[in-house]
Amino acid sequence: MEDKGYCPSKSTLYVAMLPYAYTNNDVAQLFMGFGKIARVTILRDKVTRASRGVAFVQFARAEDCARACTMMDKTQLESFTLSCTMSNDNGRSGEFIKKRKYSTKKVCFECQSSGHYSYDCPRNVLGSREKPKKKSGKKKTKFENGEAEIFFDMDAT
Question: What residue stretches are annotated with the RRM domain (predicted)?
Fold first, then answer.
């Protein structure tokens, strides 16, 4: 993997002491006010899939991550006091940038039930959040609706 000047650990927040009932969606709602969130990962027990109360929140911009870290550290949440720090790179951060392949089954990521998605899961303690916007299949072009014709006509004169 070639380095393009982007280091995910500089824009990733380590959050400890989260309530165990919180889902990925709940953590995203906690931090969405600080900037665009690229990914939320709650660490879970391998066997029971129960939350360990720890999460990584990856922001699109390092500045947003730093601001969230200073503002949310030592914040009281239910009976827990959040602990937020900038994550340290252990050399494996590149593995987590790769696009994930999800199954074609339409089930909720949080509870594995069909009929709803994780952003609308009944397990979300903080409630539902807005449905993610679909990426349009339309490619961006340099010129819109005949602008290219006008540009090239002007070029010929």
Answer: 11-89
8 Å CB contact between 51 and 18: yes
pLDDT digits (tens, 9 = 90+) for 7-28: 556 789 999 999 999 988 999 9
HEC profile for the chain?
Answer: CCCCCCCHHHHEEEEECCCCCCCHHHHHHHHHHHCCEEEEEEEECCCCCCEEEEEEEEECCHHHHHHHHHHHCCCEECCEECEEEECCCCCCHHHHCCCCCCCCCCECCCCCCECCCHHHCCCCCCCCCCCCCCCCCCCCCCCCCCHHHHHHHHHHC
Residue range 8-90 in CATH 3.20.20.510: no
